[in-house]
Amino acid sequence: MRKTLDSERLSPIDAAAFKGLREHVHGRLREATLSGLFRPGERLSERQLAQELGVSTTPVKEALRRLEAEGLVRTQARRGVYVTFDAQHAEEMIFARAAIESMIARIASERARPEQLQALDRILEGMRRATQSGPARHLVELNTRFHEAIYDASGCNYLRRLLDNQRVYDQMARLGLLRSREERVLALKEHSAVAEALSSGQGEKAEYNMRNHIIRSGRKYLEFAFPPGPAASVQAASQKEMFSVR
Asked: Has this prediction a pTM greater than 0.70?
């Protein structure tokens, strides 16, 4: 039964993506780890992962080495590769992201050009409409665009690179969270507060609002990725289903 469930976790990678195969494999396995699809302490089989993804074991081996360098898995001699990413690790990454991204928001309030603020307002308006009636997937895309617009406005290339290693949210985790009506409304309120502070040039307020948004939504992510008690098996099954249809 375990083998059957595991085989449904990862869908094959399209042959059209083979040009960047190593990046695709790494990205897929990283997302599966960060979303809680691979549980803390779980042993990862290179052969099985390669079979699920429809690739050879070579890019899988390379991807696992990269995940180990990122601190998400650990190789034990003669035993295999085990997942080390857990709720505590995720929480630390959330705090790091909150610190970096809130500073980016503060700097964006000082550097943003009028046309960049207008573009941010247009994205926010789209988020308002999507919050009311749009599909969760579209709202996830707008969410990403909103944060990217702030990064662009800040011009903080170095901080942006640091932020790349602190992303614990993958598209599937966001999708799961934003299917909740309550979460949609609260996220819109928080994004609106960030945008308002940026537009009025209130750097300290923009920093404060962004930090609170990331930490608050980060804790919701922890509940999603690491559900406690008996509900954990139900949540894991739901995540497997979402991941298999990507």
From this structure: yes
